[in-house]
C-alpha cells in the first residue's frame, strides 16, 4: 500500500494551490531630455511629480555629460543618447532651447524614442525642440506665453493654443510655461494611473492641482496689449528696464525704468509719433504731455485701452513709465 500512497501524493501535488506572490508590474519609465540652458523648474517640477508617482525617472543628454542650466546650476546626467534605455514617457523641458532645437542628434533621438513612447511631453519653450522634429505638424500645441507669436511664425504647421494650461494631441502633451509643467505632469500621471492617483500625488506635494487646467497665463490682459506697428527702437542709448508686471484677465500694469537723453515729455512724444502712424489705434486727446493713451480692438477679441504715464525725473536722471492696459468691453 505504501507505493500506492506515494503515487497518489505525487499525482495530487499539482492540485496544491501556489501561494507565491505575483511579480510586481513594471514601473513606468520616464526619460527627461537635458541640455545646456535648460530651465530648472521645467525638468525638476515634473521630475518630482513622476518620482512621487512611483515612476522610474532618468535623465538623458547628447553625450551623457553634466549640463549647465539657464541659471548656471550644474546637473549630472544619467545617460547619453547612445546608452539611454527606452522610456514610456519622454519629457522635453524648455529654457534656452535654440541650440537644442537645431541639434540633429537631439532631433534623431526624439524621433526614435517618441515612436515607442506612450506619452511625449514638452514644457514651456521645449515646444520648439518638439516642433522641430515635425511631430507637432498638424497638431494643436501650447508654449510659454511670451513665445506664442514666435511659435506661430516659426512653425506655421502647428496650431498655437493660447488659452489652455496644457494641450493633449494624441500621445503628445504640450505645456504652457514654467510651473505649468507640474500641472501637466500630473495630467500625464492621470493618463497613466487615473485622476485619483494624480490627485493623491498633488495632495502629497501640497499642490493645488486642477484637472480642468487652473490658472492660464495666456488669458491675462497683457496678452492683449497692442503697441504701435513700428518697433519702439532707440538709437540714442536709451535703456528700458522692466520693474514690475502684474494684473489679471481685465487689467494689467507694467512699470519701467527709463534711462535716456530724452526727458519724460520727449519720450512720450516719441511713442506718440509711432502710435499716430498706426491706423488701428485711436489716439485719445490727453492734455498732459507726459501721458498718452489709445483704444483698439484686439484680434483675439474685445475692446481695449492702453495708457502710458511718465513720472518726473529722479535725482540720477532716470524716470518711471507705467503702461496700463484695460478691457473696455
TrEMBL record:
GO biological process, one term: proteolysis
Signal peptide per UniProt: 1-22
Keyword line: Hydrolase, Protease, Signal
Domain DJ-1/PfpI: from-to ranges: 29-190
One GO MF term: peptidase activity
Official protein name in the record: Putative intracellular protease/amidase
Amino acid at each position: 500500500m505504501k507505493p500506492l500512497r506515494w503515487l497518489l501524493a505525487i499525482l495530487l501535488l499539482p492540485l496544491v494551490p501556489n501561494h507565491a506572490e505575483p511579480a510586481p508590474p513594471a514601473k513606468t519609465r520616464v526619460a527627461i531630455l537635458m541640455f545646456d540652458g535648460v530651465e530648472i523648474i521645467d525638468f525638476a517640477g515634473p521630475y518630482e511629480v513622476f518620482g512621487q508617482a512611483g515612476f522610474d525617472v532618468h535623465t538623458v543628454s547628447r553625450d551623457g555629460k553634466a549640463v549647465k542650466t539657464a541659471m548656471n546650476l550644474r546637473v549630472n546626467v544619467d545617460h547619453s543618447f547612445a546608452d539611454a534605455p527606452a522610456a514610456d514617457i519622454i519629457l522635453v523641458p524648455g529654457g534656452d532651447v535654440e541650440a537644442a532645437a537645431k541639434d540633429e542628434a537631439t532631433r534623431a533621438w526624439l524621433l526614435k524614442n517618441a515612436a515607442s513612447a506612450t506619452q511625449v511631453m514638452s514644457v514651456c519653450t521645449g515646444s520648439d525642440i518638439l516642433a522641430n522634429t515635425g511631430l507637432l505638424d498638424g497638431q494643436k500645441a501650447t508654449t510659454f506665453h511670451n513665445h506664442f507669436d514666435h511659435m506661430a511664425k516659426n512653425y506655421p504647421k502647428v496650431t498655437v493654443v493660447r488659452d489652455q494650461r496644457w494641450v493633449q494631441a494624441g500621445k503628445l502633451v504640450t505645456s504652457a510655461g514654467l510651473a505649468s509643467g507640474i500641472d501637466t505632469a500630473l495630467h500625464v500621471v492621470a493618463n497613466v494611473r487615473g485622476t485619483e492617483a494624480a490627485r493623491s500625488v498633488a495632495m502629497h506635494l501640497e499642490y493645488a492641482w486642477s484637472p480642468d487646467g487652473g490658472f492660464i497665463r495666456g488669458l491675462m490682459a497683457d496678452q492683449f496689449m497692442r503697441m504701435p506697428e513700428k518697433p519702439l527702437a532707440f538709437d540714442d542709448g536709451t535703456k528700458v528696464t522692466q520693474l514690475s508686471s502684474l494684473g489679471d484677465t481685465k487689467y494689467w500694469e507694467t512699470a519701467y525704468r527709463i534711462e535716456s537723453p530724452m526727458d519724460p515729455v520727449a519720450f512720450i512724444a516719441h511713442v506718440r509719433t509711432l502710435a499716430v502712424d498706426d491706423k488701428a489705434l485711436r489716439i485719445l486727446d490727453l492734455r498732459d504731455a507726459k501721458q498718452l493713451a489709445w483704444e483698439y480692438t484686439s484680434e483675439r477679441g474685445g475692446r481695449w485701452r492702453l495708457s502710458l504715464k511718465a513720472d518726473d525725473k529722479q535725482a540720477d536722471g532716470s524716470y518711471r513709465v507705467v503702461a496700463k492696459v484695460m478691457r473696455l468691453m
